[in-house]
Amino acid sequence: MDYKFANRMANLKTSEIREILKITERPEIISFAGGLPAPELFPIEEIKVVNKIVLEEEGSKALQYTTTEGYIPLRKWIANRMNTKLGTDFDYENILLTHGSQQALDLTGKVFLDKGDVVLCESPTYLAAISAFRAYECEFIEVPTDNDGMIPDELEMILENTEKVKIIYVIPDFQNPTGRTWSLERRDRLVKAAIKHHIVIIEDNPYGELRFEGEDLPSVKSFDRMGSVFCLGTFSKTFCPGYRIGWIAGDKIAIQKYVLVKQGTDLQCNTIAQREIAKYLELYEIDDHIAKIREVYRRRRDLTVKTMVEEFPEGVAFTRPQGGLFAWVELPTHVNAREVLVKSLEKNVAFVPGGSFFPNGGKENTFRINFSNMPDDRIVEGLKCLAEVLRHFV
Amino acid sequence: MDYKFANRMANLKTSEIREILKITERPEIISFAGGLPAPELFPIEEIKVVNKIVLEEEGSKALQYTTTEGYIPLRKWIANRMNTKLGTDFDYENILLTHGSQQALDLTGKVFLDKGDVVLCESPTYLAAISAFRAYECEFIEVPTDNDGMIPDELEMILENTEKVKIIYVIPDFQNPTGRTWSLERRDRLVKAAIKHHIVIIEDNPYGELRFEGEDLPSVKSFDRMGSVFCLGTFSKTFCPGYRIGWIAGDKIAIQKYVLVKQGTDLQCNTIAQREIAKYLELYEIDDHIAKIREVYRRRRDLTVKTMVEEFPEGVAFTRPQGGLFAWVELPTHVNAREVLVKSLEKNVAFVPGGSFFPNGGKENTFRINFSNMPDDRIVEGLKCLAEVLRHFV
User: A192: helix, coil or strand?
Assistant: First the structure.
């Protein structure tokens, strides 16, 4: 049958990452492609304990339908954590649990975007946020971005000259894909600009807990007194991604709209996952667990940067992230990273070319390196191998 | 801040059921309102076993990200099950796992519906399907429906005279909210009409395994040789709903579009839930488990029908479902079921008024009775009480 798909389907294409990830399932591949947490750090023994307790003490509730908003003790924990770490002022009614923070992006599109509305984003930005928003037939304008975040004068000029801007989407801490972190001043100016123009900011923060050095910075939200900023968070990077538990936090009236939309989208998050995470947080010290993750990722970041410094040929620039999972590589403008990938895969090394992180295309001379998911020795081996490939191109 | 929400938000309102469910959390309430499975039937002991094995044998995979399509052994099981029970001809690549079958409805809207497109549905139809599709700004036409399903001549006339019909949405087995089951002939004629007009059919089948009497009927899909029919299924009613694992099955090319859309929507289903269900299906005999559920629900259905026959005043009509979770009550036209509910809640008895099951409004003299989730004695007590309230109205 010839299906009459919706118009939006013409704009959607397969995520390049997901396609590359299929290749990287082969064990001989050294992969810098995914955004996967290190599975050897998952607290499996603790989860076994927690699982048993939840099923014994509250099994019939944990396996039943529940409210769309989510399990109150978990939402309370999240509100407290954000208030302590991010300088926010939330209670549990500001929090809606989502099926990973990816779903919070989708719900954001559903709640705010009409066809033709404009989303402002960093340049480059998170690939799957582009897919999530694009399903609502919006346009993207990439705001020129440097090492400290979006450039305020450029942002201001775009806001002055563009109708129908609905959302400014940012990842201020250890950004995906660049690993960059916004300065304090830029956070403040972003909020001022958004409030002046009555625009919503979506502050996506999946990596903020994974800082390897330097001081934590207050969130963009902490500068907001008008309810313009919505915060996305997740347990995927600090606990484990298989549970698919993330959240969105913001103004209560707007969060009620999100709840309404989530009802029709998928009713609710996995009930037992919500209760298991809450029980884990009650019985164990997640800060100790996060410290372990940070320690391993810091070492891998160090190895990554050191090997790139030593091995990558001249003319290749890269970021030195203070946290998170990613570094970003920029090649001379004449080099196409997709061609580098073809050669690199022949040597069993994978990464994600940077082009797809620009919603309007361009910058094919870039790629992303994920350093969280390979053992130390394979990181060094893989980057040496990649350096050799690069020497043929630059 | 004054938020500029998307236009679709003006059409969405809180699910009446979810609001009533909040009231029914009070333990003194006898609730016929939800669509909740009986939690005393959840296989908690088996889930404990399965959970331990999955975490021990494959913990780091079970807690990690996975593919959007879902766990292959589980998709294979589903394809086989459908082929055996429903007369389909699927393999695992026809199946996409979804976050409950509610998500399959949402993805269907995203894949097929543009603003102004038309969805044909039974009258009445499943409340949360209305919410799911309405988010894509479609219109609904309710096809006149009797005890055997949509009336073919009426359907044909609507198809002849309506532009932009994209989807025919049906629940042919033990429908929600009416409990009715389509006849064989109506299934056949539905598919013929849809093929003639190149329209997609969504066959939603959450209750098909819960037949209390009579013979299983072949699915609507089994009459389809053109790929027009997509089947929705779920483990919520045969296993437990807390896991949020459902599926959509259909033509492989179209399913690839669903996969694409799910990537941007929420990446994937809960990984450990997928593996636990697959392990359960490997280690235990789910047919034995379903037989237990059927036995309990049959008894409750019997009690429900018997009590309604004995107690409900003259002028009140109701269905006698051969399976599923629901019966449907029709009051004399001058009686408003929302007013009945107010009085009934004063006596601690809850149900869902039928009005919201009609996307274009009307039929306020109806309500839905769920009989799966109250102990036998409370069913009788609650319906007697409700009968007393009804006597004041009719």
Answer: helix
